[in-house]
Design goal:
The complex is a heterodimer of chains A (386) and B (200). With 386 residues, chain A is mainly alpha-helical. Chain A contains 17 helices and two strands. Chain A has a two-stranded antiparallel ribbon. Chain A is globular, with a radius of gyration of 21 Å. Chain B has one domain. Helix content of chain B is 76%, strand content 0%. In chain B, helix 7 packs antiparallel against helix 8 and helix 8 runs antiparallel to helix 9. Classes of the chains: A mainly alpha (386), B mainly alpha (200). Chains A and B meet through helix 3 and helix 14 of A and helix 4 and helix 6 of B.
C-alpha cells in the first residue's frame, strides 16, 4: 500500500552534516591530539577507535531504518490525542508559542530520558546509545532502534495542552539535533553555559560509568531540569570511563540493540512469582533507591577492542559510505514505496550492516553473507524500481 | 454546583484521603497512592468541568476526558496491584509504581484513541476481578470482608454504566455516571482499608 501524503524524514537533510562533522572531529583529534587523550591512571587511550566508531555509525543507520516504520503510528497517536483531547490549539504564527513548545518538549524529554535510565524495559532500548566505551560525535549517532516503543508516551501531555503536531515534531527535531554536538571530548568546560545548558562537559558525565556518573544529567537542551529535580552532577577532574556496567563486547548492530532485552527475558524466565517478574521489567537497572550501587573501579576496566587490518578497515569504510547513500535513498523513497518495498530495502541494508560487523569481529560467516548480499542487490534494485 | 460536579467532588475527596494515607502516611503503598492520585485527578477535573462556571468547564473538557481514560486504564490496575501484590517492589516503591502506571497508561491511551474504546471499561473490570479472585487466598491478610464489599460496590457501579443509558435516572435523581462515582466513593475506601498489610 503506497504511503502517500507522508512527508520526507527531515533527518535526511542532516545526514551529510553528521558525516562531515564526524570526519572533521576525527581529523581534528588526530591532527591536534594524535588521537590520544588522558585516561585513568595517567595512561592515554584513543579518542576515536575504528571498530567502535564504525559500530556506532552502523547502529545509527539501523536506527533510522527501524524508526521509519513506526513513525506513522507514533505520530498518528499524537495527532489522535491532539484531535480528541486538546484544550486549545496553539497559534502557529506566534514565535513565542514555538519557543514555549520547545521548552515543554525539553521538559518532557528530561522525564523520558530519566525513565530510559531508571526503568529496565526502557533502559533495554536506550542502553544501545550508552554501549560505546568512547565518547565522540559518532557516539551521538549511536541511537537505539527500539526506544520508539515508549518514547511517544511522554509527549502526550503536550497534545492535551494543545501543542499542534507540527510544533511537536519541530521541537523534537531541534532537541535531538542540539544534543549532537555535546558528544565530544574535544570541547572543555564552558563556564556559565555548563550550568544552564546541556554541554559536552555535563554530557560526558552522563555517559560515564564512574560511581558519581550514574543516573545523572538527563537534560536535552537545558541542564536546569537536572538542577531542579536533583539529578545534576558537575564534571570532576578524574578521567571518565565511558560505557555501561554490563558491557556489550560486540560490534554487531542487531545484538547492540537487543542484548539487554535478552537479559531481561532471561531474568523474567528465571524469576519466581509475579513480584519478581515485575521487577525484571520495571526495576531500575542500577537497583532501587534503598539498594546500594556496586562500586566501580576505573583502573580495572578493560575496554572491548578488536584488531582490524588496514584492508578490511578500508573496505568497511567504503561499504559504510555506500550504506549511507542507500539510507538516504531509503529515507527519500520511503513515503513512495509500498510497505513490502520498504521492508525489502531496509532488510537489504540491515543484512549489509550485519555482514560488515561480522567481518570486523572476524566471524567466518561475515564474508559469505556480504557476497550473498551483493549477489542479491540486482534483484532488490529491480523490485524497488519495478 | 451541579449533581455531576457534586458526585465528582465526593470522589475527589475520597481519593485525597487515599492519597494522604497511602502516599504520605504509609510510604510503602505507592501503587494504592498512585491509584488515588489518578482517579482523584480525573474527579477534580470533573468538578471543574461540570461546575456552573461554563467557561472553565469548556476549557478543561479535553483534560478531563484524558484524565478519565487514564484513571480507567492505569488507575484501576494500580489499585489491583496494590491490593493483590502489596509486597511487590513495583507496588511499594514510588518510582516503580509511577513508571509501571505510566507504561500501562500510555498503552491504554493509545488503544483507546486508536478506536478500541471498551478498553477503558474492560481494564477496570478485569482489575476488580483480579481483586475478587485474590480474595480466595486464605493467607492474604487484611480485612477480606471489607475488600469483598468494596469489590461488590465497584462491580455495582460498573454494571450501572453498562446497563443504563446516559439519560436514565435511578432513585429519581441519579444518573449512571453519578451512580458509578458514588459506588467508587464507598468501594475505594473499603478496598484500601481492607488491603493486606505490606510484609517486607
Amino acid at each position: 500500500m503506497p504511503q502517500k501524503n507522508f512527508p520526507v524524514n527531515p533527518i535526511l537533510y542532516a545526514i551529510p552534516v553528521f558525516m562531515l562533522t564526524v570526519a572533521l572531529e576525527a581529523f581534528w583529534a588526530w591532527r591536534r591530539h594524535g588521537n590520544r587523550i588522558v585516561d585513568v591512571g595517567g595512561r592515554t587511550r584513543p579518542i576515536y577507535q575504528f571498530a567502535d566508531a564504525m559500530s556506532s555509525l552502523q547502529i545509527g543507520v539501523l536506527s533510522r531504518i527501524a524508526a521509519a516504520f513506526p513513525r506513522l503510528l507514533t505520530v498518528g497517536i499524537y495527532v489522535l490525542v491532539y484531535q480528541q483531547f486538546a484544550v486549545t490549539s496553539w497559534d502557529k504564527s506566534n514565535p513565542l508559542a514555538w519557543l514555549l513548545a520547545l521548552l515543554l518538549y525539553d521538559f518532557f524529554y528530561y522525564w523520558k530520558h530519566r525513565a530510559n535510565h531508571e526503568v529496565r524495559i526502557m533502559w533495554a532500548g536506550h542502553v544501545t546509545h550508552h554501549n560505546s566505551e568512547y565518547f565522540n560525535l559518532s557516539t551521538a549517532l549511536r541511537q537505539s532502534s527500539t526506544t520508539f516503543v515508549f518514547d511517544w508516551m511522554f509527549y502526550l501531555p503536550m497534545a492535551v495542552l494543545g501543542v499542534p503536531p507540527e510544533m511537536w515534531i519541530a521541537a523534537g527535531l531541534i532537541d535531538l539535533l542540539y544534543q549532537y554536538w555535546t558528544h565530544t571530548e574535544l570541547i572543555g568546560r564552558l563556564g556559565w553555559f555548563d550550568r544552564v545548558f546541556v554541554s559536552p562537559s555535563n554530557h560526558r558525565v552522563h555517559h560515564g560509568q564512574n560511581d558519581y556518573c550514574i543516573d545523572c544529567n538527563y537534560g536535552g537542551i537545558l541542564i536546569l531540569w537536572d538542577r531542579l529535580f536533583g539529578t545534576f552532577e558537575d564534571e570532576r577532574p578524574e578521567p571518565i570511563v565511558y560505557g555501561v556496567r554490563t558491557p556489550l563486547a560486540s560490534v554487531d548492530p542487531l545484538w547492540g540493540n537487543l542484548h539487554y532485552y535478552a537479559l531481561i527475558w532471561r531474568d523474567f524466565r528465571a524469576a519466581r512469582g509475579i513480584d519478581a517478574k515485575l521487577d525484571a521489567i520495571f526495576a531500575p537497572p542500577s537497583g532501587w533507591r534503598d539498594e546500594k550501587l556496586g562500586h566501580f573501579e576505573p583502573l580495572e576496566f578493560q575496554r572491548y577492542e578488536i584488531k582490524i587490518g588496514k584492508r578490511l578497515a578500508r573496505y568497511v569504510t567504503a561499504q559504510y559510505a555506500i550504506t549511507v547513500v542507500c539510507l538516504c535513498v531509503f529515507l527519500y523513497r520511503f513515503p513512495h514505496w509500498t510497505v513490502t518495498q520498504s521492508m525489502l530495502a531496509g532488510l537489504w541494508i540491515v543484512i549489509g550492516l550485519t555482514a560488515l560487523a561480522a567481518m570486523m569481529a572476524g566471524r567466518r560467516w561475515g564474508a559469505p553473507l556480504e557476497i550473498a548480499r551483493w549477489a542479491a542487490a540486482i534483484a532488490v534494485a529491480w523490485a524497488l524500481v519495478g | 454546583m451541579t449533581p455531576d460536579s457534586f458526585s465528582d467532588l465526593a470522589l475527589c475527596l475520597v481519593c485525597v484521603g487515599i492519597l494522604y494515607r497511602c502516599w504520605w502516611l504509609q510510604a510503602d503503598r505507592a501503587a494504592l497512592g498512585l491509584a488515588g492520585l489518578l482517579i482523584g485527578l480525573a474527579a477534580a477535573l470533573g468538578v471543574l468541568r461540570f461546575s456552573t462556571w461554563t467557561e472553565i468547564g469548556e476549557l478543561v473538557k479535553g483534560i478531563h476526558q484524558f484524565a478519565s481514560v487514564l484513571a480507567a486504564v492505569a488507575g484501576f490496575p494500580m489499585l489491583a496491584l496494590g491490593i493483590v501484590r502489596p509486597d511487590s517492589t513495583v507496588a511499594r516503591h514510588r518510582a516503580g509504581a509511577w513508571w509501571c502506571a505510566f507504561v500501562i497508561g500510555g498503552f491504554g491511551i493509545a488503544v483507546w484513541v486508536l478506536g478500541f474504546k471498551p478498553w477503558a471499561q474492560l481494564v477496570p473490570a478485569l482489575s476488580t476481578l483480579s481483586i475478587l479472585v485474590a480474595l480466595r487466598k486464605p493467607n492474604a491478610g487484611g480485612d477480606r470482608l471489607l475488600r469483598a464489599l468494596g469489590v461488590g460496590f465497584l462491580f455495582a457501579g460498573f454494571t450501572a454504566v453498562v446497563l443504563l443509558t446516559p439519560t436514565d435516572v435511578v432513585f429519581g435523581m441519579v444518573t449512571r455516571v453519578q451512580l458509578l462515582h458514588y459506588a467508587l466513593v464507598i468501594g475505594l475506601p473499603l478496598l484500601v482499608i481492607g488491603a493486606p498489610r505490606v510484609n517486607s
